[in-house]
């Protein structure tokens, strides 16, 4: 433990930025400049601690020791930069740098209102997220967890329309139920249990809190209750089913929010909290040894219910994602599924699975951020939100859709993208334990297939179809269970069905999605050609931008925020997508971050040993189990777990 | 020493005597009320601060009025618990008085009632005699009736009458309870009662009857469901500058007095052995938490909503007393004390904010608060902070109180109570978020115009689109509600500053959880042996 102000500085640097952002609200360039400066400073502070932390140091700042103020009796308001904290803080602050550029491009591209509030809340969210990363005990993490719910609320309700307000309400309800009710209750339980065997504490300890383990011998039921309360509390933000539905609704927020916060910082703070609970509050040993009597099955470890919920979530969410036509919503369900990978890996308790789960935090972050950035870029450039309107969009946005492909492969866990590495370790973990854990392995593999099932169609329709020649989308458009008819879309369905009177009745009987399929070629934009008045494909860049800004004004006055009105503005223009070069498809403010993050996902996948995250993940697991990672792989799980508490 | 213990009676006597000055001098001079009230309040604030520093460093201070022995005379006690309330009373009174300088009400009669109220409240906090407590309860109530009745229109008179009837019944209940206890023990001094009540020769039936009457009396005074009915209309109809004072202090002082009787007079061990005492107090508290919130959520007037919120927040305090009785929990008592102070500060700030908004825009309903954040960012921001503090978001003061109360309930293994306390976060959020959403995420509504039907026709009946007409004010011909283009001269920077200070104070106190416990420590060891 080294006393150091840097953990606090890392938290506060973006809090200071809030004041500067608000103060410079009249000068947008300066305002966005503060975001970038704060992001760089935050990353710099976190990175400056990295070498020492890798060397085994832990930096600590405590309110009591620096000011003498006791937050609550027996509880210090303390920040601690340990490997796990650095792991999350490094990820969030690194990605914020690029997101702040991207957000600038996005918000200006759409000419959004209340940008000052947006950037201020964004900076506050990062403060809270890093606070969660560095929190040294359950109360401190609770404080930041609640603050994070609070400061992301303005971002979710940003649009100030009915849909956004409802999403905001739902968001507050879910997150405060998780934080203010479950997490607080669990924290109070832990405090009370440890108070019974000595001085009360809620401070994290690698491998689990010893006082809690002692108390759990006397009060096993309450220790279990505390565990499940804490998991439920963090599980809300980690979007574990059945607490997940806020996430899809929160997609009404501007895309940078969906990207950095609702795919990385906020949701992963939930997954990160679960990691803290499993690794450093109860500890793998206690979780495994506290028997939970399940009727009909017998006694199982506390981890099994969590793993079952996670396995269910990742399968179910993947299936739901397949039927979402709105791209951001599809990505949201994908996030729900991918977060459950992390929870599943952690709750399998095997060192390899844990390392894989931890590595999945950055792996998923890079890939999913790429996907969201792409979705946002498409939205800004073409106002297209629905996958069914994206046929042939690869011509218009080649670089974006290439990056999207990389991200999609990462989701599915295909090498050489980062998602492969994490999934590989999780599968090793499941396989080494064997037995019923094969079910979890099967869920992971099945989910990989489903991932391809919901993301590949996007890539396919973008690159291999064109606006006037594309297939029907059977999963989306047909009633559940499918239809007896050709899925080929190139023949005119009416002509093909021509003389068959029976087919007519079929069509009439078919579900309400059927007419939508027939209207496929009648784009709403055709009725509003003023949206896309670009005269010629070879028009020079100036004309292009002018035309774009014109259409911008018109469209932004309609609506472009994810309710069904988007069908009015999305889709290809009357003349089909323009063919653009990868460098002219959008502003560099958005393209550069997309390219960098997608590259990051590949780098993490090709050389995980050289990118710091995998090493940190190993280090965290080694700290928990108290032996080198190479030995851990070979040690049977039971034996490894007994070593935890030594 | 003597100079210190003289402060205690002066804290009570000075405002009550000063209360006569505005009216008496007002016969000759027009504007005497303000300097008298201002000087007295400042003096009280300073004296309370000095006394607090003495008490928290040197321990309890007593003053025996007139030198009569406690058995017959009246004893005034300033200990760690009562000083918390005294500090709250003087601080809030100072803040509210400063606010009314510009925001109103003004006038000599107001200053008289104000000083009388402050004197009564300080009396409740400092007295060590159960009958004397009744006297101060009545002084407080009478001043409050007068202040409520000074609101505009006949509704204020009705509200005041309602309060008068219920308040008098409550005070009588308390007096009957005191009479029973006096019958059984022959003394009215709190410390002597504490030794006399558990004595074997005391008739337990009389004591129980006494406690039952006292509980019902305080349930009315503290506005616990279903005896709360006086409170929302009193808060709503009182002049805007008065509501913060009443809401923050009157019920708080009564709740403090109830807690004082539980821990000092009847004592926790005795009540724990009394059948059903804990269960009844717990039930009153928990039911009020739930009922108060439900009622708050369905209100349209902001003041009424906050009034019902007080019902539920005091429910938490009463539930904490129940935990103190049931589990001999020191933690829950700390929680109750902190929540009394915290809630007082929060409600004072919130009602001051409400008064400010009403003064500048005439907005009183939740709907009329739409778009406030753009018009008055500092007031809206402060109210947001105060509301979230009330919800229990850390590091606000509301969280600290809730933490201790919840911890006490868990330590005593009262799981249903713990569940209610944890859930109260969500329940409070339900009405807090409603107001926040209006202030920040709802553009100012437009007045219904006859042309509004046009928007509906173009939208083709899609339910989602109903709002789009509202969100785009340029389309509409209707004029905006009072939120824009109104007279802002009535609001001074100082008034805004007071609300901001309240918000900042609520955050600062949020870090004082450990400090509160340290301050109360000597009192707790004395009460819980």
UniProtKB/TrEMBL annotation, chain A:
Record's keyword annotation contains Transmembrane helix: yes
Bias type Basic and acidic residues, positions: 552-568
Sequence segments annotated as region (Disordered): 489-579
InterPro entries: ComplexI-like_HydComp, ND/Mrp_TM
Pfam families: Proton_antipo_M
Localisation: Cell membrane
GO MF: oxidoreductase activity
Entry's transmembrane regions: 6-24, 36-54, 86-106, 118-136, 171-193, 221-240, 299-319, 331-349, 361-380, 401-425, 437-463, 588-607
Membrane topology: Multi-pass membrane protein
Cellular component terms (Gene Ontology): plasma membrane
Major subcellular location class: membrane
UniProt feature, compositional bias: Acidic residues: 509-523, 537-551
Keywords (A to Z) from UniProt: Cell membrane, Membrane, Oxidoreductase, Transmembrane, Transmembrane helix
Protein name: Cation:proton antiporter
Origin species: Natrinema salsiterrestre
TrEMBL record, chain B:
Composition-biased stretches (Acidic residues): 461-475
Keyword Lipid metabolism found: no
Subcellular location: Cell membrane
GO biological process: ATP synthesis coupled electron transport
Region (Disordered): 452-483
Membrane topology: Multi-pass membrane protein
Gene Ontology cellular component annotations, sorted alphabetically: plasma membrane
A molecular function GO annotation: NADH dehydrogenase (ubiquinone) activity
Alphabetized UniProt keyword annotations: Cell membrane, Membrane, Transmembrane, Transmembrane helix
Domain of life: Archaea
TM helices/strands, residue ranges: 6-27, 34-56, 76-99, 111-127, 133-151, 163-185, 205-223, 244-266, 278-298, 305-326, 332-357, 378-401, 413-433, 496-517
Domain NADH:quinone oxidoreductase/Mrp antiporter transmembrane: 128-428
InterPro entries: CPA3_Na-H_Antiporter_D, NADH_UbQ_OxRdtase, ND/Mrp_TM
Keyword Transmembrane: yes
PANTHER family listed in its UniProt record: NA(+)_H(+) ANTIPORTER SUBUNIT D1, NADH DEHYDROGENASE
Entry protein name: Monovalent cation/H+ antiporter subunit D family protein
Origin species: Natrinema salsiterrestre
Source lineage: Archaea, Methanobacteriati, Methanobacteriota, Stenosarchaea group, Halobacteria
């Amino acid at each position: 433990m080294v006393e150091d102000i840097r953990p606090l500085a890392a938290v506060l640097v973006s809090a200071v930025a809030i004041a500067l952002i608000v103060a410079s609200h009249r000068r947008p360039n300066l305002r966005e400049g503060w975001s970038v400066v704060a992001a760089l400073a935050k990353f710099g502070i976190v990175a400056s601690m990295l070498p020492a932390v890798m060397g085994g140091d832990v930096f600590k700042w405590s309110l009591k020791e620096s000011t003498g103020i006791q937050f609550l009796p027996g509880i210090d308001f303390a920040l601690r930069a340990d490997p796990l904290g650095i792991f999350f803080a490094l990820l969030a602050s690194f990605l914020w740098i690029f997101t702040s550029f991207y957000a600038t491009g996005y918000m200006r591209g759409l000419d959004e209102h209340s940008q000052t509030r947006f950037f201020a809340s964004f900076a506050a969210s990062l403060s809270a997220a890093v606070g969660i990363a560095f929190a040294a005990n359950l109360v401190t993490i609770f404080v930041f967890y609640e603050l994070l719910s609070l400061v992301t609320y303005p971002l979710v309700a940003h649009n100030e329309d009915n849909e956004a307000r409802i999403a905001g309400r739902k968001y507050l309800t879910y997150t405060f139920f998780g934080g203010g009710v479950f997490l607080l209750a669990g924290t109070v339980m832990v405090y009370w249990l440890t108070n019974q065997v000595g001085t009360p504490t809620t401070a994290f300890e690698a491998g689990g809190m010893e006082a809690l383990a002692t108390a759990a011998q006397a009060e096993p039921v309450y220790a279990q209750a505390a565990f499940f309360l804490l998991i439920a509390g963090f599980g809300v933000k980690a979007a574990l089913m059945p607490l997940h539905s806020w996430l899809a609704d929160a997609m009404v927020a501007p895309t940078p929010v969906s990207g950095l916060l609702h795919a990385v910082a906020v949701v992963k703070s939930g997954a990160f909290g679960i990691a803290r609970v499993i690794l450093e509050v109860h500890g793998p040993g206690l979780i495994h040894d506290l028997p939970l009597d399940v009727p009909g099955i017998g006694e199982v470890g506390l981890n099994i219910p969590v793993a079952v919920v996670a396995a269910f979530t990742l399968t179910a969410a993947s299936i739901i994602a397949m039927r979402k036509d709105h791209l951001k919503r599809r990505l949201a369900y994908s996030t729900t599924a991918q977060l459950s990978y992390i929870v599943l890996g952690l709750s399998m308790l095997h060192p390899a699975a844990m390392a894989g789960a931890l590595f999945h935090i950055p792996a998923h972050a890079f890939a999913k951020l790429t996907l969201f950035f792409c979705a946002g870029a498409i939205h800004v450039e073409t106002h297209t939100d629905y996958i069914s309107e994206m046929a042939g969009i690869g011509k218009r946005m080649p670089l974006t859709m290439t990056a999207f492909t990389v991200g999609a492969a990462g989701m599915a866990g295909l090498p050489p993208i980062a998602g492969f590495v994490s999934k590989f370790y999780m599968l090793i973990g499941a396989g080494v334990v064997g037995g019923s854990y094969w079910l979890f392995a099967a869920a992971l593999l099945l989910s990989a297939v489903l991932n391809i099932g919901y993301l590949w169609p996007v890539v396919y329709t973008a690159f291999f179809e064109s606006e006037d020649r594309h297939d029907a989308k059977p999963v989306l458009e047909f009633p559940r269970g499918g239809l007896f008819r050709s899925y080929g879309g190139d023949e005119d369905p009416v002509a093909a069905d021509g003389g068959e009177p029976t087919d007519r009745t079929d069509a009439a009987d078919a579900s309400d999605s059927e007419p939508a399929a027939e209207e496929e070629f009648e784009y709403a934009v055709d009725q509003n050609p003023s949206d896309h008045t670009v005269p010629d494909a070879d028009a020079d860049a100036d004309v292009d931008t002018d035309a774009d800004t014109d259409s911008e004004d018109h469209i932004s006055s309609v609506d472009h925020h994810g309710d069904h009105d988007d069908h009015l503005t999305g889709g290809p223009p009357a003349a089909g997508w323009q063919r653009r070069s990868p460098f002219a498809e959008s502003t560099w403010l958005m393209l550069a971050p997309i390219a960098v993050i997608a590259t990051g996902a590949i780098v993490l996948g090709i050389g995980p040993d050289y990118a710091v995250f995998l090493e940190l993940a190993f280090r965290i697991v080694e700290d928990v189990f108290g032996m080198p990672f190479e030995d851990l792989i070979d040690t049977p799980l039971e034996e490894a777990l007994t070593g935890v508490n030594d | 020493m003597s100079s210190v213990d003289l402060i205690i009676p002066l804290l009570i006597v000075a405002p009550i005597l000063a209360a006569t000055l505005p009216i008496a001098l007002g016969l000759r001079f027009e504007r005497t009320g303000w300097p008298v009230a201002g000087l007295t309040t400042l003096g009280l604030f300073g004296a309370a601060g000095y006394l607090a520093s003495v008490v928290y460093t040197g321990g309890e201070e007593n003053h025996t009025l007139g030198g009569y022995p406690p058995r017959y005379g009246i004893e005034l006690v300033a200990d760690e618990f009562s000083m918390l309330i005294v500090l709250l009373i003087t601080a809030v009174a100072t803040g509210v008085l400063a606010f009314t300088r510009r925001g109103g009400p003004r006038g000599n009669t107001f200053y008289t009632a104000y000083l009388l109220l402050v004197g009564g409240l300080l009396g409740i906090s400092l007295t060590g005699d159960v009958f004397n407590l009744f006297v101060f309860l009545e002084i407080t109530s009478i001043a409050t009736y007068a202040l409520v009745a000074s609101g505009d229109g006949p509704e204020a008179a009705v509200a005041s009458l309602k309060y008068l009837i219920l308040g008098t019944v409550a005070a009588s209940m308390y007096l009957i309870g005191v009479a029973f206890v006096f019958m059984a023990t022959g003394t009215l001094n709190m410390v002597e009662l504490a030794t006399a009540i558990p004595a074997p020769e005391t008739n337990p039936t009389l004591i129980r009857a006494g406690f039952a009457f006292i509980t019902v009396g305080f349930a009315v005074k503290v506005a616990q469901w279903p005896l709360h009915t006086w409170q929302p209309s009193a808060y709503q109809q009182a002049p805007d500058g008065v509501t913060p004072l009443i809401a923050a202090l009157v019920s708080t002082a009564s709740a403090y007095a109830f807690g004082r009787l539980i821990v000092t007079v009847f004592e926790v061990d005795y009540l724990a052995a009394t059948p059903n005492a804990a269960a009844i107090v717990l039930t009153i508290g928990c039911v009020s938490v739930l009922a108060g919130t439900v009622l708050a959520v369905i209100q349209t007037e902001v003041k009424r909503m906050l009034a019902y919120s007080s019902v539920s927040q005091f429910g938490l305090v009463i539930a904490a007393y129940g935990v103190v009785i049931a589990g001999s929990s020191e933690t829950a008592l700390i929680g109750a004390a902190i929540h009394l102070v915290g809630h007082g500060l929060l409600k004072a700030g919130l009602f001051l904010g409400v008064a400010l908004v009403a003064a500048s825009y005439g907005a009183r309903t939740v709907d009329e608060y739409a778009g406030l954040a753009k018009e008055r960012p500092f007031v809206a921001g402060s109210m947001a902070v105060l509301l979230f503090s009330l919800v229990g978001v850390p590091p606000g003061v509301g969280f600290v109180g809730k933490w201790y109360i919840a911890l006490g309930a868990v330590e005593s293994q009262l799981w249903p109570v713990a569940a209610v306390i944890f859930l109260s976060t969500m329940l409070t959020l339900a009405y807090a978020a409603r107001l926040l959403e209006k202030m920040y995420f709802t553009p100012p509504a437009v007045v219904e115009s006859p042309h509004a039907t046009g928007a509906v026709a173009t939208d083709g009946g899609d339910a989602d689109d109903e709002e789009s007409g509202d969100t785009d004010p340029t389309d509409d011909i209707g004029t905006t509600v009072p939120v824009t283009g109104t007279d802002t001269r009535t609001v001074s920077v100082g008034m805004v500053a007071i609300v901001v200070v309240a918000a900042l104070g609520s955050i600062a106190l949020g870090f004082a959880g450990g400090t509160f416990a340290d301050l109360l420590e000597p009192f707790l060891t004395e009460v819980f042996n």
